[in-house]
What we know:
By secondary structure, the chain is α/β, with parallel strands linked by helices.
Amino acid sequence: MKCLITGGAGFIGSHLSEALLKKGNLVTIIDDLSTGRLENVEHLRKEKNFSYYIDTIMNHVLMAELVGKCDVIFHLAAAVGVKYVIDHPLETILTNVGGTEIVLSLANEYGNKKVVIASTSEVYGKDRPGKRIFSENDDRVLGPTSINRWGYSCTKALDEFLALAYFKEKKLPVVIVRFFNTCGPRQTGRYGMVVPRFIKQALDGEPITIYGDGKQTRCFTDVSDAVRAVIGLVCESRAIGEALNIGNPHNKITINALAKVIKRITGSKSAIQHIPYEKAYEKGFEDMRHRQPDISKLKSITNFSPRIGIAGMLERIVKDFKQKNKLAQSS
Ligand code: UDP
């Protein structure tokens, strides 16, 4: 298969590139390095089946050439990370909506190429009493437009609407994947993600900063599980025209417990600090208390079950951080 991955130098994109190459596919990535990093794919650059373009997906001419040459597009390029989208609301809307429109219209124009659209559990919005587990057809509950986080949620929902509209009206084969808190080596905490932030803080001996009371829970998914699910779905005709949750419901943990586990694994003496949301993000910031994926739809289509537990996932990430620190010190 000739695969085009937008955002291929990002955290998930780089792991997806690696997995697709291992299976013998041809992989081309395009990434503007806004949040992705060339070092994420450094080890792939010597592979004969791998090519990369450092450019924006808004470059219509280049995108037309790349879409024209591929069989399937994995559209991962987007503004992501709670902190990033709060700090860059305009770029978030323009990239996430405009970029997806370009990808879908070109996929349609160049012979109805299959498109996998990366979406997010953020589309569900807020949890509410009795509602912590989210299934694909659940209602979405969002806060006011003054809170940028909900703008991000809307951009990804609009991407989904757009993809489904192309499927309905143009028969474009689209698959929408909603990632739930994916983690793994190469993820940076710079844009807000809690796991790499806590690990870096723990290794640097800095306070581990928990936002709010820390009793909120998340289900963390190892990137290898997430990538396996995506690859499983791309080969399944039953996934076409569908949105699917990708996550690991077994890895549910409070943020307080996460901080303690990371402290233990790293052997860190860091203090644990609680910080109000308004100080961490912006005035009026709203967090969801609990968010757990229902993955029965994914399981029914692909037989998927997540393999990596939280301890194994964290140990692998800590190892990656330590290796990078060592390299940085020796250079
Ligand atoms: N969080 C935290 N400290 C940080 C970053 C995040 O306590 O330095 C919290 C955040 O408020 C949320 C949870 O960890 O409750 C997961 O945050 P993340 O941004 O990783 O993912 P999301 O909020 O999208 O689930």
